[in-house]
Amino acid sequence: MFDKAQVSTNIRMKIALVLLLAAAVSAAPNTPQTHEVLELDYESFARDTPESRNFLINVLINQLFNFIRNVIANGSPIFGIPPLDPLKLGQIHLVVPAGLINLDLKLQDAAVSGIGGFLVHRSNLDLSKLSFDIEISVPYLNVTAGCPRNH
């Protein structure tokens, strides 16, 4: 059902993400540091919206999306991830029940391009609820494939 190269690429991407998180944690100082204590005006925080408090985090998340676009377009030689646009799928069988029109597609030598052009319409990390809300679309996908051979 899945191409071994595709599964291997997905596993490599997950390993790359875990290694990136581990590197960030290991870069943190392990010796206690003393800092001056600042008094904060809590009333000004009460007037702020959750969006303004999470502004920096959301900027970093947008940078992460830009990094993902770059990896999709160019791959990552450090982690051994090849470019994923176009994504070569080999042989795939898709069943799409779409109400009036149901699709049963059998594709051979399939390739999908345009994945790296995804748009992030909205993303919000809410630390108080520990939730991440995201709205993504891919405005253009080009799928090319050959016909399966009947025996």
Q: How would you describe what is shown here?
A:
The chain is an alpha+beta fold and about 150 residues long. The protein has one domain. Helix content is about 35%, strand content about 30%. It has a 3-stranded antiparallel beta sheet, with no helix packed on it. The longest helix is centred in the first third of the chain and has 23 residues, at about 5-25. About 0% of the residues are buried.
The structural domain count equals: 1
Quick check: average pLDDT? 76
Ranges where pLDDT stays below 50 over 5 or more residues in a row are none
Describe the sheet with the most strands: 3 strands, antiparallel
How helix-rich are the residues, as a percent range? 25-40%
What would you say about this model in short?
This is Lipid-binding serum glycoprotein N-terminal domain-containing protein. The chain has four helices and five strands. The chain is α+β, with helices and mostly antiparallel strands.
